Amino acid sequence: MAIPSHPAFLRNKLSQEMRLSLVVLALLALAPLVISSPYWLGVLIVSMYFAMLSTGWNLLAGYTGQFSLAPAAFAMLGGYTTGLLAWHWNVPLAIGLPMSFIVPGLIGLVLGRIVLRLSGPYLALTTLSFAEIVRLIIYNSIDFTRGDQGLNVPALMDSRIGNYYLFLVVLAAVTAGVFLLLRSRIGRFLQAIRDDEIGAASRGVDVVQAKTIAFLVSCSICGLAGGLYGTFAQLVSPELGLIAQTGIVIAMVVIGGMGTLVGPLIGAVLVYVASELLRDVGNIQMIVFAILVIVFARFFREGLWGLARQAMARRRDAAGAKGA
To answer: Where are the domains of the chain?
Structure first.
């Protein structure tokens, strides 16, 4: 027996967020017209990398209610998948990049079947342990991965502007894919599990299967982001999988708006650009973002997009009252 469909206003909310996501993507597409600095174009490219990670993590945490601490680890796996295939076996990027999507997804599928029967702190701790184990294996496998020296990755694009629009196209595809997934039957199941897992199970939803699908898609998105990042930086290293990287992703989603489609895009761009601006005043980025996460988690649960939506609703109500 299937669960009832979500009310129409929730579907409209998702469509509204998709339209706003398209606006954000369009602004990013126009940014090179006014930003000519290679440095700042590079900053925006890395912010789009984090936007992919944030979108993947938000699908799992924001829409399914499963708190993983491994998005950076799966990005690292994606980067090393592409890099190792090219380094050891001269596999072209036309094959290596798709494998950065497939291999982390398969690993996520196996891990998901193991850990997604857990919940709350147990799931978080298990994924954290997995992330650290994988990072340490890569760090210590010097003969195969070159350890902390890092692994060279071939460049996919020679120009910075080419890399910029490549990342933008992939980010747009990831956003559209998550939107379509959330609009589907399985997307409604995921949100039902987040809101009431026991109730969803009682209505015939295969909870473990649905959560595993979300975990697989999330890991695949993170892996693809890592593979793309490797071709841009032309280097992957164990630092990609540091827990601090996952902390940045969580901060971006919470500040932008957890459980919203557009929140990760807004949060990733604003947080990463702000972190670059704060470099001039000392290494205080994580302190500032940690404080912001606490404030937003406590007082503004829907993040910046939620605040903007509330402001627009108040303005409409005020206009309606004035017209009456």
So the answer is: 10-242
